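=== Structural record ===
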Amino acid sequence: MLGIFKSIFGNKEESFINETASEEIKEREAPQLEYEQDEDNESYIENLIKRAETESDEDENSNPPKLVELAPNESRLLKNSLNKEKPKFEYKGLLFCKEITGFLTQNYFSRGRHNGVNFGDEGTLNSGILIITSEFEMILSRMIESRNSKLNDMERMIDSVPPQFEHLSKELAGKHSMVMKEIDTLNDQINLAKEEKGWVSPALNNYKTGFMQGKQLAINYKF
């Protein structure tokens, strides 16, 4: 019986000693691991500092300097954003703007023919012309307002550019001039529309042609 007790308690004592030794080993290794991690971080930072110090200053005509890896994730995000394909912008002119094309593609011939068949008098003809002209002027006025708002934003942005980045303000000033020219063109078209000339003339001519045909149909039907 005594031998059995010794066997049981002896095994438990041996297991307790092994566990205690294992914990002591882990405690001794933990500081070592932390030290190695700190050493890796310090080495990483030192490499960044060395790379920053060895970068040569490049003149304005040279290629832009390579990205400095500030952090692994940040470097990846920056490179991905620079590698994205930029959308191609092709300026076709104001006549190809959706607002104007939407106006010009309406069926003014059908509108005129409807008025010619059902009414046919000169007052209805002139009223239809005035309505079309007013719609056109309203569209152009909205486009002008939108561009005036854009000009204000551009001017604030130009004023905020630091003097050492003067080339950026000059580039923006060029775009500012282009928007100004667009506003002048739109104002000219509003004045021409009052004389039934300019961009609005195709819509007015289609309306008049449809009105005349509608009036002719009404006459032929009745007589």
